Amino acid sequence: MDLWREVTEFLGEHHGVIDRAEFDRQGVTRHRLACWVAEGVFERAAPRVWRLAGSADTWQQRLMTGILSLGQPAGASHNSAAQLHGFDRTPRDVVEFLVPQHRRSHRLSSTVHCSKLIRPYDFVTVDGLRTTSATRTILDLANIGVHPDRVSAAIDTAVRLQLSSPETIARRVYDIRRRGRTGVRLLDRLLLDAGGHTMLEREFLRLMREGGLPRPVPQVVFRHGNRTVARVDFLYDEWAIVVEVSGKLGHSSPAERARDAQRRNELQDMGLLVYEFTWEDITGRPSWVIAQMRLRLRSAGWPG
């Protein structure tokens, strides 16, 4: 394989940028690189990183440029990592990185955060880009004072996408608690009602907690043989009660309503009581929701 083909293959896999270390691995001399720069083939993108002239200036390219320039252990972080992981309520195309504290000095125009608390498992690869894990990203967002609604949305998204869990996040919070890290109290509070997949599910869990009612198990899957009957929002297993919460839009088409009816019937055939609360119920009349759940749980045998 010729030299130029090896270089272009790397560029194709790294969003049109390449670093000095890769040039060295491929045997590209400094003289050869200087000639390519003089000929307009490459242009400097960051310290130790060159960009293929004419390549698209994308958000991913800017992230890769910083990752290659900063080296390991470092990667995309905070809002950049939140977007890569697909977290809800994340601003788009922000460029941020995380590096160890001893590497505070840098010459990137992007935001570079430093931390003494970086662990080997804090970095993963998403879409070919080294980035902080979902759990670490949630901790970082809380640490820089992101609005609590965004942090709770990040937790719920991570749980929904199976990128993390409330238990995993809680273990990391315990790990950093003694280090005086900002955001610990916020995470403690938000984890109280974590475990659902949406903000509405989180709100229902909050109502149960503040109403002094038992906490249901979120996101339980029921199967019949090899077939999935339903994934329900909440289950009170001891009292055979299923609770579903529906958003503003709900299921409005005839096909969706038919599937919902079949699903409900099958759950009832399994001996479960199925109750549903709407977005208007949970946000508009929370006291009524608490009273209804207290009545239904007592009727099912909860001692209260």
Task: Explain the overall architecture.
A four-stranded mixed β-sheet has the order 9-10-11-12, with helices on both faces. A three-stranded antiparallel β-sheet has the order 1-3-2. The protein has a three-stranded mixed β-sheet with strand order 4-5-6, with helices on both faces. The relative contact order is 0.07. The protein has 13 helices and twelve strands. The mean pLDDT is 92. The protein folds into three domains: 3-54, Arc Repressor Mutant, subunit A; 61-191, no CATH class; 199-299, VSR Endonuclease (Endonuclease, Chain A, 3-Layer(aba) Sandwich), CATH 3.40.960.10. With 304 residues, the chain is α+β, with helices and mostly antiparallel strands. The radius of gyration is 25 Å and the shape is elongated.
Task: Label this structure with key terms.
alpha+beta, 3 domains, elongated, 13 helices, 4-stranded mixed β-sheet, 3-stranded antiparallel β-sheet, 45% helix, single chain, Endonuclease, Chain A, Arc Repressor Mutant, subunit A, 304 residues
